[in-house]
Amino acid sequence: MLTLSGVGKRYPTGDRALKDIELTLPKGQVMALIGPSGAGKSTLIRCVNRLVEPTQGSIRLEDTELTKLSGHKLRHARRSMGMIFQEYALVDRLTVMENVLSGQLGYVGFWRSFLRRYPQEAVVEAFRLLERVGLPHAIDKRADALSGGQRQRVGIARALLQSPKLLLVDEPTASLDPKTSRQIMRLIRELCAERELAAIINIHDVALAQQFADRIVGLRAGEIVFDGLPSELDSEMLTTIYGEEEWDTTPEPMDDEAADDAPVDPPYARVMSSIEAGAVR
Ligand SMILES: Nc1ncnc2c1ncn2[C@@H]1O[C@H](COP(=O)(O)OP(=O)(O)OP(=O)(O)O)[C@@H](O)[C@H]1O
């Protein structure tokens, strides 16, 4: 349903953030995008909905060539792409319900939404979605009174209110604790399955990506260096994606007593233990 062919991005500074990206995402597939800082993950996600302009190549969403759109047609196409951000991007002084309804902005027009007059069916659907994401009790709360996990649930409900075909998710768990991160990833995964929604999730936590994605794409310096199943992502592949320097944190051998007290690099340990255990859904 989404096809990127020969997509490249060169920023005005000269940085080549993406080089010749070839990617096809079928309906309903949850794809995790991993890679070191600066690899181009956010740029790729933002090129799809044209928050960043690709400088090369074609991006097709079903029958629509997205790179050629402008004005009204671009706004229309963006409605079919729900965006979920790392920092939730909620309006703090508005209620949960109002934040969710702001997902209708593309449909009802700025002034109508500004004046907070939403169609009845949008309000009914927003109630349903807030129930589905586990927040029926928080409808009238102000967004700034919510926890990080609750805010992310509001962000998910808001993205779904526009009935997208595709979810673009940028570091959804970056500010959350491990348990809440898992709950959010599980929720996104379940919603994609229920609605046959495809998703691209930019995520730093490799273990989470392995547990909740159908497919993992590894970017390094703007190029795809891995595209496969979570179970295929072994330590050799991780080294290819992240590089020896960052990845090989194995300390010098030490005696047993010293080894017991030694600090373990948590991300490395977590990823390796999850690989050894196999990806558990
Ligand atoms: N607005 C910009 N202007 C110039 N260069 C940029 C801009 N945004 C990103 N870049 C550059 O493009 C490259 C890719 O950045 P991008 O933010 O897409 O990487 P990322 O993989 O998402 O990184 P992170 O995981 O740290 O968010 C980097 O070299 C970055 O410096």
TrEMBL record:
Biased composition (Acidic residues): 246-263
Entry keyword set: ATP-binding, Cell membrane, Membrane, Nucleotide-binding, Translocase, Transport
Protein topology in the membrane: Peripheral membrane protein
GO-annotated molecular function: ATP binding
Domain ABC transporter: 2-246
Region feature (Disordered): 246-267
Chief place of localization: membrane
Pfam families xrefs: ABC_tran (PF00005)
Superkingdom of the organism of origin: Bacteria
InterPro entries the UniProt entry points to: AAA+_ATPase, ABC_transporter-like_ATP-bd, ABC_transporter-like_CS, ABC_transpr_PhnC, MetN_ABC_transporter-like, P-loop_NTPase
Keyword flag Nucleotide-binding: yes
Record localization: Cell inner membrane
DNA-binding as UniProt keyword: no
Sequence intervals crossing the membrane: none
UniProt-listed PANTHER family: AMINO ACID IMPORT ATP-BINDING PROTEIN, PHOSPHONATES IMPORT ATP-BINDING PROTEIN PHNC
NCBIfam families to which the protein is assigned, alphabetical: ABC_phnC (TIGR02315)
Protein name: Phosphonates import ATP-binding protein PhnC
Source organism per UniProt: Vreelandella olivaria
Gene designation: phnC_1
